[in-house]
Amino acid sequence: MYQKIVVLTGAGISAESGLRTFRDQNGLWEDHHIEDVATPEGYMRNPELVESFYNDRWRQLQVPEVKPNAAHEALAKLEQAFAGDFLLVTQNVDNLHERAGNHKLLHMHGELSKGRCPRSGQIFRLHEPFGPDNCCTCCIPAQRLRPHIVWFGEIPIGMDRIHDALEECDLFIAIGTSGTVYPAAGFVDIANHHGALSVEVNLTPKERHSLFHLHYEGKASEIMPSLVDKILSGSLFTK
Ligand SMILES: [Zn+2]
Questions:
Q1: 21 appears as a binding residue in the annotation
Q2: Is 3 marked as binding a ligand?
Q3: Which end of the chain is more exposed for a tag (fewer CB within 10 A), N or C?
Q4: CA 146 to ligand 1 center in whole angstroms
Q5: DSSP 193
Q6: Cα(198)–Cα(206) distance, integer angstroms
Q7: pLDDT value of residue 239
Q8: Using CA atoms, how far apart are residues 37 and 63, in angstroms rounded to an integer?
Q9: Domains in the chain, start-ordered, CATH in brackets?
Q10: What are phi and psi of 71, to 5 degrees?
Q11: Which tens digits make up the pLDDT trace of 130-182?
Q12: Is residue 87 part of an annotated ligand binding site?
């Protein structure tokens, strides 16, 4: 039986819930240039454009068809039923994991449903889309909240906690993630180096595929329910 599990999820698990992958093949994010909507400089140049970009993403989360799928639900079951340490690290900025019932969850790239005071760093839950009236309550004068999103050139959230968990875990599972974007792409190296069993769940083999001990190819929503049952029953082995 495993004692400490770290799970990493990426865009693939959200795509199965109808959320379009944020970044497409030609480097555009939903028809915008990355430097315009996903950098601090882009936000300084045109905060309205950036706010409207994230507001559109945020509104997608309110659509009834966009809901947690069987993979999200399996991970919530794993967290609830697993007696050891558990940490779910997601690269996704949507709220599907928490809606499925996960609490031991770290959004390393931020969250669409939150804004952040640019001065104090305090985080606020958004009850309405971004706009000039969406301000912090921690400063005088109140500051306009910025999206609580990690942009290019910014450091992902919770890296110390993630590193500690990876060094201690005995099972690492990466789901729906390309394995090419650092620092997340390096998580498997850390887990392997400290003796964990590493498992990959992806639609198709990825570039760093060979680093994982076990591979599951197919939809996460079809693979994860039985994989979680295997983990919980103590029957997941390397061979
Ligand atoms: Zn403030």
A1: yes
A2: no
A3: C
A4: 11
A5: H
A6: 14
A7: 46
A8: 22
A9: 4-19+68-109+155-232 (3.40.50.1220), 22-60+113-149 (3.30.1600.10)
A10: -70, -45
A11: 887 889 999 999 999 999 999 999 999 999 999 999 999 999 999 999 888 88
A12: no
